[in-house]
Amino acid sequence: MKTRQQIYGQEAAGILRDVSMYRVLAREQLLRLYPGKRDKVEKLLTHLVRQGRIFHDKAADLYCASEDSAESIDRGLLAAVWVLVDFISQVEYHSACDFPGKIMFFADGEIYEIVPISVGQEALVSQLLTTGPKDPPKYIVLIDKPEQIAELQIPNASGYCTVSDDGTVQYYQKE
User: Fold this and answer.
1) CA angle 74, 81, 18 (to 5 degrees)
2) 146: alpha, beta or left, given left = phi > 0 and alpha = psi -120 to 50?
3) CA-to-CA distance for 1 and 137, rounded, in angstroms?
4) Are 61 and 27 spatial neighbours (Cβ–Cβ below 8 Å)?
5) Which pLDDT does position 6 carry in this prediction?
6) Is residue 164 pLDDT above 80, yes or no?
7) Is the peptide bond before 146 cis (omega within 30 degrees of 0)?
């Protein structure tokens, strides 16, 4: 007979890692990070909140690493997680990363970095990514609006996307 630890241990550790690393995640993001395990993840979220290991902002339906995390949400990171969950079936590993990117992940033998660019940051981030590493990852550029694409000159950009408030991701290619 399997113990609770054997049944739920890997997912519980993963949820704790994800919430700690990304600081704030929506319920639907957490459920989509573990495809095919929706019921198990729902039970674990309830259990981890009850234990005080993570915190739940019921009004916004956000799970947080600390009680005050929901007050200082990194909107770029939250949007980048929506992009990540779109690729989760192909993802072998994912992690938060340094500016200008928010998330890096390995999928299909490639390294990808999700880079959010707010309106007005196009020139700065384009310059940073142009003078970046010798062998850069593939960039998925998260923008506020499609009109920004024309202002961006990013080598190794795999594509561009926007994320709506409900987490829907819309993808674009530069022509």
Assistant:
1) 85
2) alpha
3) 45
4) yes
5) 46
6) yes
7) no
Model pTM score: 0.89
- Buried/exposed 107-145: b ≥16 CB within 10 Å, e otherwise: beeeebbbbbbeeebbeebbeebeebeeeebebbbbbbe
Do 19 and 63 form a contact (C-beta atoms < 8 A)? yes
95 forms beta bridges with 104
| Residue 28 to residue 143: CA distance in whole angstroms | 21
Is residue 69 predicted with pLDDT exceeding 80?
A: no
Which is more confident, 37 or 131?
37
Q: Rounded distance, CA 27 to CA 88, Å? A: 16
Cα–Cα distance measured from residue 83 to residue 37, given in angstroms and rounded to the nearest whole number: 19
b/e code 55-73 from CB counts within 10 Å (16+ = b): bbbeeeebbbbeeebbeee
Tokens of 103: 């998330």
Spatial separation of the C-alpha atoms in residues 68 and 104, rounded to whole Å: 25
